[in-house]
TrEMBL record:
UniProt keyword annotations, A-Z: Signal
Highest taxon, organism lineage: Eukaryota
GO BP terms: lipid metabolic process
Alphabetical list of InterPro entries matching this protein: PI-PLC_domain, PLC-like_Pdiesterase_TIM-brl
Record keyword Cytoplasm present: no
Species assigned in the record: Quercus lobata
Protein's name in the database: PI-PLC X domain-containing protein At5g67130-like
Record PANTHER family: F21F23.12 PROTEIN (PTHR13593:SF51), PTHR13593
The gene coding this protein: LOC115976260
Listed transmembrane segments: none
Length: 354
């Protein structure tokens, strides 16, 4: 046998052994893969050309800190994965009959996001067609070409998840442009969500701890809703976000390494009269091709920067675009870091069980 034939046989043998060694759900984190079915549970097969060649198994779900450890601490002692513009889903069909011309920020639908461990959803609510809609827009107005869907459709998905998962808590953060009197109250009521509503009177305003998660579950108060309109706290009993939470700058302004400024509407990040901390980390214009790089080491580095800016407080919410895209652990590993630091001072929540 000549040398060329030998090399061909050796190469084929190596390729066969690699394929044989890793397939049918056996592939571990960062192993090469050809389809999602090759990867172990909690992983999927993904290509991130900025970080590695070919396709590899990367994470697709969070670690449930309540099941791993416990739910007996105050709500503000845990961290939650947040999807920025959770409703702006690639492939969402037009609900207006007009082709949509606007950006998308996520690839999974709301139910998939929740099933994969997302526990906080950022939604933009507008008056549109005599109802409340979720919309990308400008100037406080929604248009046919920027509308995604009636808000009730998304809210019903949240209701179905809460009904099917009686120990889980979901937070909804609204960029709110609804002016119709009681418009939000009506749509949340029509979606069947009022029975899960966490009451305003139980929210701490002076930096105290929140109620225990176990008590929130026992009382079935498992939906937290925040609005960006201050007056709705009094008129509809919906919490004004920045009475309870500090938040860093969103968009490009929040992506400069080593710098974590507060959002204009938010008080300074180190204001301890607000007991919840939200960190945004996504560009102003969403590009899914580079999200895998943004959602990886750069994200964790920013969480450390914002920890210092927030007076040595770890984020409770971390908001990203295209939440499953990463070079390995991604936003899911970032969440493991946050929960590890919050719960036991470790850089991974799994270390807290030792």
């Amino acid at each position: 046998m000549d040398l060329r034939a030998s090399l061909v046989l050796i190469t084929a043998s190596l390729l066969f052994s690699v394929a044989k060694a890793c397939s049918n759900g056996d592939c571990k984190l960062l192993d090469p893969c050809s389809s999602d079915g090759d990867c172990q549970a909690g992983l999927y097969c993904f290509s991130c050309p900025l970080e590695f060649s070919g396709r590899r198994c990367v994470r697709s779900t969070t670690t449930n800190q309540f099941k791993l450890l416990n739910n007996t601490l105050p709500f503000n002692k845990y961290a939650f994965l947040t999807t920025h513009n959770a409703y702006a889903i690639e492939g969402e069909p037009s609900h207006t009959g007009v082709p949509r011309i606007t950006f998308t920020n996520q690839e999974d639908n709301i139910t998939q996001q929740l099933n994969n461990g997302v526990r906080s959803l950022m939604l933009d609510t507008y008056d549109f067609q005599g109802d409340v809609w979720l919309c990308h827009s400008y100037g406080g107005k929604c248009y046919d070409v920027t509308a995604f869907e009636p808000a009730i459709d998304t809210l019903k998905e949240i209701e179905a998840f809460l009904s099917a998962n009686p120990t889980e808590i979901v937070t909804v953060i609204l960029e709110d442009y609804v002016q119709a009197p009681k418009g939000l109250t009506k749509v949340f009521t029509d979606a069947g969500l009022i029975k899960y509503w966490f009451p305003l009177k139980n929210m701490p305003k002076n930096g105290q701890d929140w109620p225990l998660v176990s008590d929130m579950v026992a009382n079935n108060q498992r939906l937290l809703v925040f609005t960006s309109i201050m007056s709705k706290e009094e008129s509809e009993g919906i919490a004004y976000q920045w009475n309870y939470m500090v938040e860093n700058q969103y968009g490009d302004g929040g992506m400069h390494a080593g710098n974590c400024p507060n959002r204009t509407e938010s008080s300074p990040l180190d204001d301890r009269t607000k007991s919840l901390v939200l960190v945004n980390y996504f560009p102003t214009i969403p590009f899914k091709q580079i999200a895998c790089e943004h959602n990886s080491a750069n994200l964790i580095n920013m969480l450390h920067t914002c920890f210092g800016a927030a007076g040595n407080r770890w984020a409770n919410f971390v908001a990203v675009n295209f939440y499953k895209r990463s070079d390995g652990g991604g936003a899911f590993q970032a969440l493991d870091t946050l929960n590890g630091e919050l719960l036991c001072g470790c850089d991974d929540v799994h270390a807290c069980v030792n």
